[in-house]
Design goal:
Blueprint: H1 4-22, E1 26-37, E2 41-52, H2 55-75, E3 83-94, E4 109-122, H3 128-137, E5 142-149, H4 153-179, E6 182-197, E7 200-201, E8 221-234
Antiparallel strand pairs: 1-8, 2-4, 2-5, 3-4, 5-7, 6-8
């Protein structure tokens, strides 16, 4: 058993050692790594919008058009897993009352509008233009955006992460060489977010797709990873 005096000395030494450890000189850096991939798939947002005097008639017209679109998508080789209803709503359309009318009254419903949105994942980009053209010819009259993705996204992120760490090491080595000091052990490393810079076509009216075949340029996707790294340094 330690005597009280020896125990006090041991505690003092431990505290002093911890204090010195907290004051070890360190170097902290942030670095970014990137990787690119050529897209091999696209996500397309398409909508069928129909108006009629009654909700049931608007729904009937909309359902008929969407059924034709879905049938054609499958004929084009789109699998069930790549077709998903993204939006559906029925809303009344009210008459416009002129501000000049002296006697205000409640607007009456003059029609109904039904919107059915469809998200389509296209895995064959060579067929994308013809798929858009066929969708419009079968009743799609409102378009969203087209975003391009890659089936190799996970591999690209791993590559970007490795490039970020490599960039941090190179940056740190440049600094310590210039300062005539040495890198010690890594005391902390963390990831500070992932950024995806995919190519995206903005929302467009479906009528703009009514050429014989829509020309599409998929570009390139960039994946970025940020890391924070901290080292001990020795002089």
């Amino acid at each position: 058993m330690l005597r009280p005096l020896a125990l006090a000395a041991a505690l003092t030494l431990t505290t002093a050692t911890a204090a010195l450890a907290d004051n070890v000189p360190s170097l902290s850096l942030q670095a970014t790594g990137t990787a690119t991939r050529t897209p091999d798939m696209a996500s397309v947002q398409l909508s069928v919008v129909r108006e009629a005097k009654t909700a049931s008639e608007a729904l009937r017209q909309n359902s008929s058009a969407m059924a034709s679109v879905l049938k054609e998508m499958k004929a084009q080789g789109i699998e069930d897993r790549d077709l998903r209803t993204s939006n559906f709503n029925i809303r009344p359309i009210y008459e416009q009352i002129k501000k000049s009318q002296r006697q205000p009254r409640t607007p009456r419903i003059i029609a109904y509008q039904v919107t059915n949105g469809l998200s389509v994942r296209v895995r064959n980009l060579d067929a994308l233009g013809s798929i858009l053209d066929r969708a419009v010819s079968l009743g799609v009259n409102s378009g969203g955006g087209i975003s391009f993705g890659s089936s190799q996204a996970d591999e690209a992120i791993k590559e970007a992460r490795a490039n970020a760490v490599k960039a941090a090491l190179e940056k740190a080595q440049t600094i310590v060489d210039a300062a005539n000091i040495s890198l010690g052990r890594i005391t902390n490393i963390s990831e500070n977010g992932l950024q995806y810079g995919g190519h995206k076509l903005e929302r467009a009216r479906a009528q703009s797709f009514q050429d014989e075949e829509v020309p599409i340029a998929s570009g390139e996707n960039t994946y970025s990873v940020n890391v924070n790294v901290q080292w001990e340094i020795t002089q």
